[in-house]
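ESCALATION

Customer reports they have been waiting on this structure for their group meeting. Please prioritize. Original submission:
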Amino acid sequence: MNDRHEIRRDDDGALLGFVRWDGEQWEPLTVFGYPLGAAGPYERAEAEVRRTGLDVLSGHWEFLEDGEWYRCVILEAAAGEVRVRPADHRYPHHVYALHLEHPGPATLRPQR
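Update from on-call: job pushed to the front of the queue and completed.
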């Protein structure tokens, strides 16, 4: 059994995210693998990806660097990676964008 399924938009085939089998249920994920909600039946996980998979990317996020969380926006997202632009006056480096590989809840999260 393939434990991860792509969910694509019907009209143009754009990748919206994934649903992943966690051994007991299906978990809805963003295009870069961030959890979108609680695991459950396939149909519920797929509906969550279709409903929020792309919208959540346009919100404000936070990334962790040197023990501090900094606000950012996602510029690009692909399977296993994102490019973010720091949007926090406290961020000590003058860079336009950062490339994060395999970000997860421990290193990238929606802004709280």
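Sent to customer with the following note: Helices lie at 42-52.
Escalation resolved.
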